[in-house]
Design goal:
single chain, mainly beta, Rossmann fold, Immunoglobulin-like, eight-stranded mixed sheet, 49 strands
């Protein structure tokens, strides 16, 4: 140890701790502003720590830790933004603040610094590098390093059961994001009025992250939300609660008569103290969704080579296997089978012992059987693609493992609230033994769900086989405000290897048909965007006559309050979105209501095989601006398909993957017969390459039939390129698309 003037520097491994000689604020709790060196972010990072008054007097005592994330315009030591600040100490909020709570409770509170300057020394108020992603800093990836530092330098209880996260506003968003990303590190998470949605993730390919859709990330975690009856974000919280109230068993929320801020601080932090006293166990079955291409969770290591926006989804993970996919967006975005997905399990298996792995592609219904020895740490390694896979992990002793492969609504286009719903399920045996005398029992933990037929059965299922029972479940939900129902499916057979599988069914209101609707199939409309602006834009892919033809991609534009509205569409029609195409876009409203959310809208594609005269039925939804409480309009849209396919394939995006493979996604309602790329460097026109592209799973193409066409190129140097894609479909329609591509 060496002393320099008034400070003490303590060197400890990879970090440097600067300890000030006296607390910088006059409070019974010790409040210190410190810093350490972060290897993850490559710079010094500041934090504020609140220590109990008797921390120094009781050197044998250890404490739980609550990490607190500040809001917009604040720093770790500057909680003074007008209206929301003043929650560290002082008399604002009637003295109900962090310092007062730490004074009265045996707990440590750590406030990290979300400062994210775009250039050195910039006084930039937007923290955490979210919405938009502007720098290299990834604060969620920094969190485990900060935890490691605090545990190494303070007398903490260094386990997930005694670690929690809370935050305000943008920090509230971060608390939910970080807590859901690391359920193995924290046992409880709370949020003061944070927006449920921001653009986050890698700088090269960020994506929209909406907490409403990732409710399954919080298995084994207590969660809490504080709302304000006058808060400008409240409407978004109401929408989230419509899902979380029925999918999160350990979730609570409370509304205060307040604007934006931290009312009820002691109650919020007290929630975490109760969680410390009665922690939830590690779940026997867990689920996880992650926006990063690689991550670790619950001892599993997951890696993809994804280099465009998307999410990795793991579901129903147990020692007996899991379901996996990589999706472009949530909740039902298109799969990304061209992405490679590698899953290394936790140390759950016996070193050197053989295990039978059954991999069922739920989209193609193809099955792989593999045998693998557990490694020296008792782990297994499974290589997959980003399609929808169900993986069974079995000992060599043959026994069945039953699971839910999928479901469909039989008596309507979708499940309608207030009406009886006929729910047909597909069952899969992902074990290695024969399942006999199978029956499935349906139940729901939700209130207000009536299940009038709760049992169906099958005579048998062989390994890797998918079958549907002849009869369907029947249920009804009469609460007209409900948007989702959670079920548990109990599966039994003669082997006595009973399984329970959770799943959710989205509910839709019984609505009437929308009026004054226009079809955009390749021509321009003046539409309202961003909540309060109007712009002239071209929408859709087709001949622009306002009539839906086979092979076209189109938007539905209702006119409401004098403006055309961008509309989200849902359908189960088999002629819509062939080969898994599912194009959805975001209309950002943050500049209007200052929240960070976006309205979603769809561009469905009609299969070229759709017969003329066929009627497409969509559930439609759009927003009307009324900040802070927007209006949601819902209704049916019926579209009659006419004519024949006259639409050429169109390239949506192009990129160069590993091995100098050019990948191009095509939007097309028909089979693409030929595709060719003309590849030239913009600043060096002499660099000119042509390549044939295929979607047959060969010559660099990773997945057949996914509408991503690939071809291997000679090594292209870094630079900006123009790519012309020429393509023709089976109907003889030919066209070209020009894209710009950047190679680093």
């Amino acid at each position: 140890m060496r002393i320099q003037r008034s400070s003490v520097e303590i060197f400890c491994g990879f970090c440097l701790l600067l300890v000030l000689p006296q607390p910088i604020l006059k409070a019974d709790a010790k409040i210190l502003d410190l810093k350490h060196t972060s290897k993850v972010l490559g710079e010094e990072r500041h934090f504020r720590i609140f220590l109990p008054p008797n921390y120094d007097e009781k050197p044998e005592k250890r404490y739980p830790v609550i990490y607190f994330f500040h809001g917009y315009g604040e720093r770790h030591n500057v909680p003074t933004r007008e209206g929301a600040g003043g929650y560290d100490s002082g008399e604002q909020y009637g003295g109900d603040n962090i310092a007062k709570f730490v004074e009265k409770n045996d707990v440590i509170v750590v406030k990290w610094d979300g400062y994210n300057p775009r250039m050195e020394g910039e006084n930039y108020p937007r923290p955490y590098n979210i919405g938009p992603v502007e720098t290299y800093r990834q604060f969620p990836l920094y969190f485990p390093e900060l935890v490691q530092f605090i545990d190494a330098n303070y007398r903490t209880l260094p386990d997930r059961e005694h670690r929690a996260i809370s935050g305000l506003s943008m920090g509230g968003f971060m608390s939910y994001w970080v807590g859901g990303k690391y359920p193995h590190l924290v046992g409880s998470v709370s949020n003061f009025m944070g927006s449920p949605e921001f653009v986050v993730g890698p700088k090269e390919f960020p994506d929209e992250y909406l907490h409403t859709d990732v409710y399954r990330n919080y298995e084994g975690i207590y969660t809490r939300l504080v709302l304000g009856s006058k808060d400008f974000i409240r409407w978004y919280h109401w929408q989230m609660n419509k899902v979380w109230d029925y999918t999160r068993p350990h979730y609570e929320h409370e509304t205060f008569d307040w604007d934006h801020g931290t009312p009820g601080m002691s109650k919020q932090l007290g929630f975490h103290m109760k969680a410390f006293a009665h922690p939830l166990p590690k779940p026997g079955m867990w689920h996880h969704i992650d926006v990063y291409p690689t991550f670790e969770v619950w001892g599993y290591s997951v890696a993809t080579d994804r280099n465009r926006p998307g999410f990795t989804v793991l579901e129903n993970v147990t020692p007996y296997g899991f379901r996996s996919s990589v999706r472009e967006w949530l909740w039902d975005g298109q799969w990304m089978p061209s992405v490679r997905l590698d899953v290394t399990t936790d140390s759950l298996y016996i070193q050197g012992k053989d295990y039978e792995i059954v991999d069922v592609n739920l989209h193609t219904r193809e099955t792989r059987f593999m045998r693998q020895k557990a490694d020296s740490k008792g782990r297994l390694h499974v290589e997959l693609d980003g399609g929808l896979h169900e993986v069974g992990i079995n000992t060599v002793d043959a026994f069945p493992v039953l699971t839910l492969a999928g479901f469909s609504i039989q008596n309507a286009d979708w499940a309608i609230v207030g009406k009886e719903v006929s729910l047909k399920i597909d069952l899969l045996n992902k074990g290695t033994g024969l399942a006999k005398n199978i029956f499935a029992i349906l139940s729901s933990p939700n209130p207000g769900v009536t299940i009038s037929r709760n049992r169906v059965g099958l005579s048998q299922l062989t390994s890797g086989q998918i079958l549907a029972p002849e009869t369907s479940f029947l249920f009804r939900v009469d609460d007209l405000t409900r948007e989702i129902v959670q079920f548990e499916l109990e599966l039994k057979d003669e082997s006595k290897q009973d399984r329970k599988v959770p799943f959710e069914v989205r509910l839709f209101p019984d609505v009437t048909e929308l009026q004054n609707v226009q079809i955009a199939d390749g021509h321009s409309f003046r539409v309202q965007v961003g909540g309060n602006q109007t712009e002239e834009r071209s929408f859709g892919i087709g001949n622009g006559d306002g009539i839906v033809n086979p092979g076209e991609s189109f938007l539905v534009l209702p006119k409401d309050q004098g403006e055309f509205r961008l509309t989200y569409l849902y359908t189960t029609d088999p002629y819509v979105n062939p080969a898994g195409l599912n194009l959805r876009f975001a209309d950002y409203w943050g500049k209007y209501d200052h929240v960070g959310g976006s309205a979603k809208y769809s561009m469905p594609t009609v299969a070229a095989t759709c017969p003329p005269g066929h009627e497409l039925v969509f559930f439609a939804e759009y927003w009307l601006p009324s900040a802070p409480e927007h209006i949601i309009r819902r209704g049916l849209v019926r579209v009659r398909v006419q004519g024949k396919d006259q639409t050429a394939p169109k390239a949506r995006w192009a990129e160069i993957s590993l091995g100098n493979v050019l990948e191009v996604q095509m939007i097309e309602g028909d089979s693409v017969k030929t595709a060719r790329a003309i590849f030239s460097r913009i600043d060096q026109p002499a660099f000119h390459v042509e390549a044939e592209l295929n979607d047959e799973g060969k010559n660099g193409d990773r997945s057949a039939g996914d509408y991503i066409f690939s071809g291997t190129l000679p090594y292209p140097p870094a630079g900006t390129y123009q790519v012309i894609i020429e393509a023709a479909d089976e109907s003889g329609n030919r066209g070209s698309s020009t894209l710009e591509l950047h190679k680093k």
